[in-house]
Specification:
The protein is an all-alpha fold. The chain is built from eleven helices and no strands. Helix 4 runs antiparallel to helix 10.
């Protein structure tokens, strides 16, 4: 802080240089960049991997005119949200180990992380909703009206995520009131509690949608088995035609989803600023790790996206005019 002349006792006739006096008063030690640690390297590497793989997915979807079904819009939104999460981790590493952190950098990184994680979680709920609607209304879903519905849904998701993420920059932080901090500085405990409560609501709604998907899939399998004169008591049509494998994949997706998001959502509600930081890292790492797993579980499992990526890598072995599968297998 630079002092005025009247405040420092300097007089114009004295000939004393005020800058020298200010330098004497400013005896705070210069900022020391902390030494690079294993945690810092893991932070940078994970952020780079997350940003790279999600950038590939987003580019493949946006650059392919045939990938315009509602689910691909949702997968592009999911990839963009996870891409921003990777960028936020890289920025956090740069401000922590390469330059002096400041209040605005903390607010920017925390706001970017909140925005990306909120958009990612809501996009996952949108993917579950798309799968439910595509099974329940298989004959009409996928039309132009469905695409407009998906575009409106994504607009609402990103507007809501940006508004929520702007909370720290708009004053909902604890930089001036350390006692009000939550387990994730600089977010206040009230702000993080509301955020984690919303996360839990989204998780519950998503689980309900997947439960509805299971019910609809079982009804379809039973109806087909009845039409083909199979006896449900002897051999299940679902297991005979591979639906059991689909349910096992669905169980894997749900296990990863709940395992990544539930710990931090509960810890954000139960912990406070006096809680051990180790617990915060232990619950926040899986939430950020979901951004690394989402492309593998959702986008790269889709046959159409895999065909596009193989076409880009090996253009001579794959033709441009390939038959696009229905996107319900995401």
């Amino acid at each position: 802080m630079v002092l005025n002349a009247s405040d420092s006792g300097w007089e114009e006739s004295s000939g004393t240089d005020p800058i020298f006096l200010v330098d004497q008063l400013d005896d705070s030690p210069p900022y020391q960049v902390p030494p690079l640690s294993v945690w810092g390297v893991a932070l940078c590497v994970s952020g780079t991997l997350i940003a790279t793989e999600n950038a590939i997915v987003v580019t493949a979807i946006l650059a392919t005119p045939t990938l315009r079904a509602p689910v691909f819009f949702l997968l592009a939104s999911l990839g963009l949200a996870d891409l921003l999460a990777g960028v936020a981790l890289i920025l956090h590493f740069l401000f922590l180990f390469c330059m002096e952190p400041s209040d605005w950098s903390e607010l920017m990184i925390s706001g970017l992380l909140v925005t990306s994680l909120t958009a990612s979680l809501c996009s996952l709920m949108g993917v579950a909703l798309d799968r439910y609607l595509s099974l329940s209304y298989a004959l009409t879903y996928g039309s132009g009206q469905s695409r407009r519905w998906a575009a409106v849904l994504l607009l609402l998701v990103w507007l809501g995520a940006c508004v929520i993420g702007a909370g720290p920059a708009m004053g909902w932080h604890c930089l001036r009131k350390p006692k009000s901090c939550s387990v994730a500085r600089p977010l206040t405990r009230t702000y993080l509690s509301l955020l984690c409560s919303a996360f839990l609501v989204v998780v519950v709604v998503t689980l309900q949608l997947y439960a509805g998907i299971c019910r609809v899939a079982r009804r379809h399998a039973h109806a087909i088995a009845t039409q083909r004169h199979f006896l449900p008591g002897n051999q299940s049509y679902a297991s005979k035609h591979g639906s059991g494998r689909g349910f096992s994949r669905l169980f894997l997706v749900l296990s990863v989803f709940v395992g990544c998001w539930m710990p931090f959502s509960l810890w954000g509600l139960l912990g406070d600023a006096s809680s051990p930081p180790l617990y915060t890292y232990a619950t926040l790492v899986p939430a950020a790790g979901s951004s690394l797993l989402n492309p593998l579980l959702y986008s790269l499992r889709n046959k159409d996206i895999r065909k596009v990526l193989l076409q880009a890598c090996c253009p001579h072995r794959h033709t441009q005019h390939t038959h696009m599968q229905h996107p319900v297998d995401v």
